[in-house]
Design goal:
The protein is of the alpha+beta class. A five-stranded mixed beta sheet has the order 1-2-5-4-3. It is globular. It is built from seven helices and five strands, in the order H-E-H-H-E-H-E-E-E-H-H-H. Helix 5 packs antiparallel against helix 6. The chain has one domain: Beta Polymerase, domain 2 (2-Layer Sandwich). Bound molecules: ligand 0O2. The site of ligand 0O2 has 13 residues, from helix 2 and helix 5. One of its GO terms (molecular function) is GTP diphosphokinase activity. Belongs to the RelA/SpoT family. Homotetramer.
């Protein structure tokens, strides 16, 4: 086993556990037949190359990765509506299987790139064969529209290494504004959408029973 494999073990375990736990919140809402503020959950361990890039760009020494890079373990929670994000954050604050160490609100304060999302940094205890190890993990909570924009921008960023041609830069800015307006429009018709979703779920259950 390489040094990196060993280093990443608790992070992989944390991502697997957090995905199950946070997906469980969605299942609970579904069982109670109430609108789930969580649409879907994903997670990943940061690739080694990205960890090294981030450390180099921020001048973080390799023996301080654990404390200085907060998103080696990352989980994303996608929501339908902007208001759902706050509901999810309140639920996270009530949990006692981890401790919140920091919250970053890039929704009230969007990044200059146009990026919007709510980040919750947690200290998560992982049970390893050598005892408990507390690691940092980042939970990103965002709407489907915010996620769409961030995913596209992230891949373009990868391609252009942050040096976007002017045309692309402008289009991305416009796309960020469009995503913002989409979230606003959806919030306006939120009740209509939710009624339709309850109706749809009931109908589907009846068809499944037949
Ligand atoms: P990847 O590939 O997703 O892992 P800070 O020192 O707090 O300002 P830090 O530690 O980078 O900076 O934290 P921040 O800003 O909260 O960003 C952490 C992660 O948020 C990023 O991880 C991205 O996933 C996401 N993010 C932040 N800004 C942007 C942005 O402008 N566009 C997109 N698409 N995502 C963003 P990584 O390591 O950058 O990337």
């Amino acid at each position: 086993m390489t040094h990196w494999d060993e280093f990443l073990i608790p992070y992989k375990q944390a991502v697997d556990e957090l995905k199950i736990k946070l997906k469980g919140m969605r299942t609970h809402f579904e069982k109670e037949r109430t609108h789930s503020p969580i649409e879907f959950v994903t997670g990943r361990v940061k690739p080694i190359a990205s960890i090294l890039d981030k450390a180099a760009s921020k001048g973080i020494p390799l023996d301080q990765l654990e404390t200085q890079i907060q998103d080696i373990a990352g989980v994303r929670m996608m929501c339908q509506f902007v208001d759902d994000i706050n509901t999810v954050v309140v639920l996270l604050r009530k949990r006692n299987d981890f401790r919140i160490v920091e919250e970053k609100d890039y929704i009230s304060n969007k990044k200059p790139s146009g990026y919007r999302s709510y980040h919750v940094i947690i200290e998560y205890p992982v049970q390893t064969i050598h005892g408990e190890k507390k690691i940092l993990a980042e939970i990103q909570i965002r709407t489907l529209a915010m996620n769409f924009w961030a995913t596209i921008e992230h891949s373009l960023n990868y391609k252009y290494k942050g040096q976007f041609p002017e045309e692309i830069q402008l289009r991305l800015k416009r796309a960020a504004e469009a995503a913002f307006r989409l979230d606003e429009e959806m919030s306006e018709i939120r009740e209509e959408i939710q009624e339709a979703q309850v109706y749809f779920t009931k109908n589907k259950e009846q068809i499944d029973k037949q």
